[in-house]
């Protein structure tokens, strides 16, 4: 067997071996994202009036039109998305409004702060804001070490500065795009079994839905 045939054979073998792992990958993506959107939707629902005010205010908010309607739609997408992602039901359909939600979050809320969610000047994509935050955090740490119970204060974790960049929203966006492209995965999603039932008269079972 020459090198090219060996490469093709090896590639085909690997593809075959990993073909059915989409069940685990799809489930992992869905179960990772579901609590994220559950918490986001629950928070907006609990503070509906404040969220709508923030959506619509042009001075210190997002300045979006129809803020009450958009708040309701965001809550419906996030809470509905949490349920549907958990079940693997209508996965591609719910991924679309959730993708829109993430795009709004990225471009209306986070993009001005750069990439990083947590300020760390040693991490990639650090900007001036991050560098300044690192300096301020170092100063605050020294003050606490000199005048406070620093060991007790940091016993549950070290202090950080929230940079509020696009990092988390962009990560969730990429995960949703993967679900949109590849589906929820076989076996462990209702989409798979519904499609399998609908295709019962066909000889070829559904793949990743």
What does this structure look like?
This protein has helices at 3-18, 22-46, 48-56, 67-87, 91-110, 128-147, 150-153, 167-182, 190-198. With 209 residues, it is mainly α. It folds into two domains: 22-114 and 165-209, no CATH class; 115-163, no CATH class. The longest helix has 25 residues, at 22-46. The radius of gyration is 23 Å and the shape is globular. The mean pLDDT is 91.
Q: What is the count of helical runs?
A: 9
Shape: globular
Strand content: under 5%
- The chain-level mean pLDDT equals 91
Helix-strand pattern: HHHHHHHHH
Distance between the termini: 36 Å
Low-confidence stretches: none
| Largest sheet report | none
Please provide the count of β strands.
0
Overall number of domains: 2
Structural class: mainly alpha
What level of helicity do the residues show? 55-70%
For the CA atoms, what is the radius of gyration? 23 Å
Short description:
The protein is mainly α. Helices cover 67% and strands 0% of the residues. The longest helix has 25 residues, at 22-46.
């Amino acid at each position: 067997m020459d090198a090219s045939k060996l490469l093709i054979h090896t590639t085909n073998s690997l593809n075959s071996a990993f073909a059915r792992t989409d069940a685990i990958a799809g489930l992992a993506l869905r179960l990772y994202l579901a609590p994220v959107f559950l918490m986001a939707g629950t928070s907006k629902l609990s503070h509906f009036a404040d969220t709508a005010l923030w959506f619509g205010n042009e001075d210190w908010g997002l300045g979006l039109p129809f803020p009450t309607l958009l708040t309701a739609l965001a809550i419906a997408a996030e809470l509905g998305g949490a349920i549907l992602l958990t079940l693997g039901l209508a996965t591609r359909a719910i991924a679309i409004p959730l993708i829109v939600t993430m795009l709004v979050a990225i471009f209306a809320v986070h993009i001005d702060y750069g990439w990083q969610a947590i300020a760390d000047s040693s991490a990639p994509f650090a900007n001036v804001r991050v560098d300044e935050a690192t300096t301020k955090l170092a100063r605050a740490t020294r003050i606490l070490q000199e005048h406070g119970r620093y060991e007790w204060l940091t016993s549950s974790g070290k202090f950080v500065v929230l940079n509020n960049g696009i990092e988390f929203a962009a990560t969730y966006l990429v995960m949703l795009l993967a679900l949109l492209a590849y589906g929820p995965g076989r076996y462990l999603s209702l989409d798979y079994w519904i499609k399998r039932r609908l295709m019962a008269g066909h000889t070829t079972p559904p793949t990743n839905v």
